[in-house]
Amino acid sequence: MDKLEKLRPVGNLEKLSAVRHPMRYYLNVAHSANYTVPETFTLPLKEYVYKAVETLIARHPVLSAIILDEDTEEPYFVRLPEVDLAEPISFQKRAQSFPSPDERDSELESFLQTQHDTGFTAPKPFWRLIILTADPDDRRFTAIFVYHHALGDGTSGKAFHRTFLQALRDTASLKPDEAKRVVTSPKTPLLPNLEAAHPLPISIPYLVKTLLKELFFSKQDPKVWAGAAHQFPMTTQIRTLVLPAAQTSALVKICRDHSTTVTCALQTAIARSIFTHIPDKYTRVAFSGAISSRAWLEEKITDEEIGVWVQEFDELYSRKAMTKPTFPWAEAKRSRQTITKELKQQSKNTSVGLLKYIKDFRTELFEPKIGKPRKLTCEVSSLGVVKTENPGDGSLPQMDRVVFSQSASVTGSAMEFSVITGADGCLALGVAWQTGIVEEDLVQGIIDTLKKELDQLCA
């Protein structure tokens, strides 16, 4: 591996994931999308997939890059000279047929749990693509893209599948044996990390405020419920919740009518559901969320690129405001104001910007948390809609349901809600938590209550 082409150092935001990956504190992100190919695609499915992925590797240079020295404070990207597609791509048959749109896909959940507990090892690629089929002719399949979080953020999963769909469509005239198993890596340089694409300014008042908070108010608020203390080892549990397209459309409309967004309404509904199932002594829940920084980066990095360009925001909800007979739209509007304020900052005074003051991520950020109380109840990562043009005549490959999910996080929140609306118009939530941090019955109760809440909102 010493002979591999060195590309660039891992940036501070990328390092968060690079360092915790070998520690097994957090392993990966996944985007699962359902596809249908027309009968005119007569070659074996593997050939179309291989050809499409060859296009993706040429388009996204990070797919041929891996990270070395992850367990040090100076990890860096290197380029694989070629990618043997048989290593990151696998084909498996589902034990059961695809469930109907209103059924829970428990087989996918089980499969995702295994994937989210499986990391990556150099010199193999730091991503996987698993093709799950059920139909005898493989016309319908689920493509599960699992990737190291230092390679891409949540939006990167959307970019992968949009590129993959177009690349599949471009294989319509593929000839036998034209697809390659071994693909030569591109010479294109990696896109810049967040710190190279934005100054991430930190003001003196913000820095002083942060230091004072850390020195005098760093203890866990006893009124905030956040599951059990940080502990190791990490095993991921996954559940999914999917809203039908009609219900998703109704949710979008009612949120607009109340001058807020689906993300903010979901955060509020999740908070209400959590309060329903936790002891009364807990009067607050603490949320975090991710915001894409792409719109204001100096380098023109669009939503079609794969990389890590995000920042965080925090939100606190009180039991008093949440447990009213009717849905608290005022809280959903307040959450929108929080996000709007964060967006206006355009990456000024963010926790990401503070990472430059950390000398040793492992000993300063991660290891000291083990055994300590958790501060965050929930993370909500919302990616909006996967937009595609699907011809109604079925003449081209089509994408429909999409599920976004993450591995559990040893030093993160007690639960993670990953939200995306697929090309079929159905909003899907991928819910993740660490075994031993939250009881399974409690999580299922929260999900069931959330479903009822959303049903009432969209009725």
Automatic annotation (TrEMBL):
SUPFAM superfamilies membership: CoA-dependent acyltransferases
Can you tell which superkingdom this protein's organism belongs to? Eukaryota
Which InterPro entries does the record cross-reference, listed alphabetically? Alcohol_O-acetyltransferase, Atf2/Sli1-like, CAT-like_dom_sf
Any Pfam family the entry gives? AATase
Give the PANTHER family listed for this entry: ALCOHOL O-ACETYLTRANSFERASE 1-RELATED
Name of this chain's protein: Alcohol acetyltransferase
Q: Which organism is this entry from? A: Aspergillus cavernicola
